[in-house]
Amino acid sequence: MAHDPIMQETTTTTTTTTIVMAALSTLPPPQIATITATVSALFRLHHRRLSALLSSHSLFSLSLHHLHEKSLPEKSLLIARFLLSLLHPITARMPPSTATTTLNDRGVRDRDLDSVLLLLLLCELHQHHPESLNTLSPTEWRCSLSKHVSATMLSLSGVGFSSSEILMKYIEMVARCKRFVGVMGSREWKGGREVAASVAAVVGLPAVEVEEGGKEECVVCKEEMREGRDVCELPCGHRFHWMCILPWVVKRNTCPCCRHRLPADDVYGEIERQWEVVVKMGGGYF
């Protein structure tokens, strides 16, 4: 059977949507309400940024120029960072040992936010009205995009929508960004690749004292951890000699025993880690 990229893209989006919906369904009503409020605030921010972008010729030109200067991998990186900011409302509801973030705490810079919103808007317009971009010059795109945004203003801002409708729009945006990252960043997006744990995560690892009669073995060096000595404990609870685990985590962000992932400074590695959290929340559906 011939490979059908459109069918594969649809299946990927549907799978992503199902996973996010399954994850959200495991949360209690108060946490759902918190996520809805966070998402509504995000949508309002995005709408304000887009409104400012499309109402200013100079700002629009600068953002478009910023996009033109970026290569395809760089555009993928923009969307990847944006995807992390979208995943944060879900993963932040998990216990700190599971959901600790580093990249997400810095958010997306205003100029990059403008660029990624413009890029996603251009992709959306091209999908629904390809003639609007194909027949116009870049200098005329602003007018066409403004008309499209005006027609979908409530959708973009989240105003007038119920909580369930806002969450569905949020889920659709997560699925769209994850699909774009998968397609545009195929070289960087390699499941299972090794990435280093973030410096902040490594520095924050606690030291614990080996208790009497523990007789616990460090799986890295295969030697027993002596009573009364400080050893490193990972968020998953597994313990190791400091001198054994440090060379490990500067090369890979997984526990040597259970493969639990520590936060990473690599954007794609961090997406993979947080996506695993979402999948586990939804019952392991893949």
Mean pLDDT: 80
Note the total helix count: 14
Overall helicity: 55-70%
The proportion of residues in beta strands is under 5%
* Residue windows where pLDDT falls under 50 for at least 5 positions: 1-11, 95-106
Largest sheet data: 3 strands, antiparallel
- How far apart are the termini? 24 Å
Overall geometric form: elongated
Summed up, the domain count is 2
**Helix and strand run:** HHHHHHHHHHHHEEEHH
Gyration radius (Cα, Å) is: 22 Å
If strands are numbered along the chain, what order do they take across the biggest sheet?
1-2-3
Helix/sheet category: mainly alpha
- The count of strands amounts to 3
Write up what this structure looks like.
The chain is 63% helix and 3% strand. It has 14 helices and three strands. The chain has a three-stranded antiparallel β-sheet. It has two domains: 5-189 and 266-281, no CATH class; 199-249, 2-Layer Sandwich (Herpes Virus-1). With 286 residues, the protein is mainly alpha-helical.
Keywords:
286 residues; mainly alpha; Herpes Virus-1; three-stranded antiparallel beta sheet; 3 strands; Znf_RING; ubiquitin protein ligase activity; RING-type E3 ubiquitin transferase; Znf_RING/FYVE/PHD
Describe what is shown at a glance.
By secondary structure, the protein is mainly alpha-helical. The chain has helices spanning 5-25, 29-55, 57-69, 72-91, 96-99, 103-106, 110-128, 130-134, 141-151, 153-157, 163-184, 199-203, 242-249, 267-281; strands at 207-209, 230-233, 239-240. The chain has 2 domains: 5-189 and 266-281, no CATH class; 199-249, Zinc/RING finger domain, C3HC4 (zinc finger) (Herpes Virus-1), CATH 3.30.40.10.
